[in-house]
Amino acid sequence: MSDEPQKHGWEQRWSPRDPSAPHSAPGRPGGQAGRPTRPRTGWRRALPTWRTLFGGLLIFVLVLMGGLVVGYKLVSIPPANAAATAQSNVYLYADGTQLARDGEVNRENVRLAQVPKTVQLAVLAAEDRGFFNEPAVDPQGMARAAWNTLTGKGTQGGSTITQQYVKNYYLGQEQTIVRKTKEFFIAIKLNREATKGQILRGYLNTSYFGRNAYGVQSAAQAYYGKDVEDLNTGEGAYLASLLNAPSEFDVVVHPENKRAALARWNYVLDGMVKEDWLSPADRRTMKFPTPGEIRHAGIGLSGQRGYIVQAVEEHLTGNKIIDEKTLAAGGYRITTTLDRKKQNAFTAAVKQQVTSQLDADRKADRNVRVGGASIDPRTGKVVAMYGGIDYTKQYVNNATRRDYQVGSTFKPFVFAAAVEHGSETQYGEPITPFTVYDGDNQHMVEGPDGETGYSPANEDDTDYGPISVRTATNYSVNAVYAQMAQDVGPGTVRKTAVALGLPENTPDLTATPSIALGPATASVLDMAEAYATLANHGKRGMYTLVDKITRNGTDVTLPKRNVTQVISRRAADTTTSMLRSVVDDGTGTAAQSAGRPAAGKTGTAEEDKAAWFAGYTPDLATVVAVMGADPVTAAQKSLYGALGQERVNGGGVPAEIWGRFTAAALRNSGAREFDLRLDEDSEEEWSSDDEQAGPPGMANGSHRPGPHGAAEGRAPGQSPGETNGRTQDRPDAGGANGGPAHGRTPEQDRSPGRPAGQTTGQSQGRPTGQSDGGAAKNGGAGGGPADGGKGDGATGEGGTGDADSDPGARTSLTDAPGT
Fold this sequence. Notes:
The protein is of the alpha+beta class and 819 residues long.
């Protein structure tokens, strides 16, 4: 036996483990190593195992199922909500006095059998093509709508007809998760307790179609003046189209939206064909069924009240403050920004200058319409609006419609863009009020690479020769502004106009040189906002029509008005300086009747279908438009011969309305001067030596324009051709008072690139020494650029004329019409 200590059994069975030894799986024969267990390291540790995922999913499913069961048990079908018998909305002036009440809701329920089958199918094609075969709820659509609500992306469709009926009849229009949840459970229960026919009947009787019409029967009467039984397929498809956007697709109220409404109408009919509810042959015979005029307008919306209510509703729904169906449900107390005294003053001014002058025996007077809007530049509040003669007689709001060209009232936006961006002429000269352009009629616009092709006509085809931008603005010279738009860049001009206040989607706001002549069809209210931005030194905040809203004593949150500097003060104030000259010495002299320092611009649409005056004082920006429209067909008509005048120009009736309204609106406040900050080159003047000698090549005695661009009158006995300007043909005029007449303008020899000493009377591009005999036709000096001018009713017989837009030739540079 060994002397060394013997190990006991337990000592043999256990000993400390060598950490470096391989691990053996317990129970494995021969101590063979088992599969190694690798610890989770790095980013893998952050991922759940499949066991965790499966367990979590199982718990989620169980909780969801439990929630559905509990929700189904707890949520019951409620009685009809108060909105199902909607209330009226009350509209107030800014001082709290009542402006209007929008009347009782128009409802009339019908049985489903009374609704033609094709009308029922048109509604299904528009809203829920799987109605009869699919479940009551659309979880995917609900999830999408809920996500959009949570992320602030606005509301979106996706609900079935059953869900929409539940919302209309049992719940409300508010977009909340709670309401969507209730809608889900009620729709499921209703689908179990009512037939599809009963649900469809309820939907057709509770849906809002616009024109204050709830239900398909009321809609049939409101749009087509017939009972629902008498609707044809095309009419039914149009009513079905309205469910998507009732007011937006009303082509009578918004003729500019007809393209969108027609697209929706085609979508409905094409859907019916796709579902085999309408034969392709019948589809091909369909013609768009234009609805009739608005019917059943209540006495409470007569005069201007209806236009104001319409504009306020569009403002609230368009800015997503209240959706259209919720607003239509009623019960709101809406305080507007409108000043009662200013509103009455606008109506009185139109009556004085237009309404009282209409003659039933004068055919052209039947076509006359007026629109106007006035904004406080500092607050953005709309203080007055004129929509038409009477909402119950003429239903389209002339202040908000977007289908008449704005004409030369657009030109200030071109100049503002030039100053804002430091633009130069093609000769490298900075564009300022005293920059000289060729103002000859149909002067060819030159592109950056020398390409030509666009040659707009001036008013009355007048040749102006070399002329300063200020004088060209005074007399609205198309040739100058088309070239300026090309020099600035049409795209830059467009961006500036949008920044100032024109909507991005303004029709015909196309980035071509012709943009300067105003083919765009912005509304009167749009233009008032843009001019208010100029009046506010380039600062813009969205205009507003509403000061306060309450419902059942609770305030409705209004969006905060953010004011931003959209163009520099230098650009805005320099433009104001130019527009002051238009009122002092140009086509807008009738606006002097306001008795205030004023800036403004006249404008005339193509074929004289509309005449505009847009202007402002430091306190008020106001735009007035006189439009021509057939009272039966609503087709645009020329204003030739209206109000007993040969032509209705912007410097005539519109400027007179503007002056009378502005004087009355500001009667109780002191007159304020414009606080303008201008560059030195914006107020450049000739020295005394220059006044004696004139510019190089100009005969002695010629003078540079004064601060507002008006040339000095010729001395007594001075012969024609020596004058610097044209006589405005005022009764007390002692000579020429600004603009070209028999002789050339003072700027004629300062054209970019012209050698010193070049002879007077030569326009750009003509051989040296060639004379054109003066700017005005027939050598005339009175009343406008041509002999005799055109009367504007503001400055006596002959008047100043409104040297505005005429159609220009279409060219390779642009496809848009000149104006």
